[in-house]
Amino acid sequence: MKLYEDHGFGPFRVAVLSDDTPIGICDLFFRDGLEEPDIGFALLPEFCSKGYAYEAASAVMEYVRDDLALTRVVAVVSPENVASIGLLEKLGLQYESMLRLPEDEKDICLYAIDFAGQ
Question: Could you tell me which residues come within 8 angstroms of residue 83 by beta carbon, excluding any fewer than 6 positions away?
Fold first, then answer.
């Protein structure tokens, strides 16, 4: 709720359209150590690799670009998370660098998309 209070948006509930079964979340987040908002998604394991994350993340990216008019969005992902990296690249984000967020013990990958450059 704090994200909604501070920024006007927060995590969207992801659900199966046919029966409204909740299966995860997707939206922009603000993490310590990042200058821009980052897109994040999480689904229950039994709903992974079925297109739900792409559908939800695509809708969030469209909302970010068209309604919020943000010019840049980033994402962070563990280098071994091949599925999420593939999804980020399918959404148009590109690898920028490795970084370590505050309080983390390992480096992670930073991906970004610049809407102003499209």
Answer: 48, 49
CB 72 within 8 A of CB 54: no
pTM attached to this predicted model = 0.88
Please report, for residues 50, 57, 114, the alpha-carbon distance to residue 36 in angstroms, rounded to integers and kept in the order given.
29, 17, 11
Euclidean distance between CA atoms 42 and 91, whole angstroms: 16
Helix axes 82-90, 52-66, angle to 10 degrees: 40
CB 74 within 8 A of CB 37: yes
SS3 114: strand
Burial class (CB in 10 A: 0-12, 13-18, 19+), 61: buried
Tokens of 49: 């690799």
Domains of the chain and any CATH numbers: 2-117 (3.40.630.30)
pLDDT in tens, 77-116: 999 999 999 999 999 999 999 999 998 899 999 999 998 8
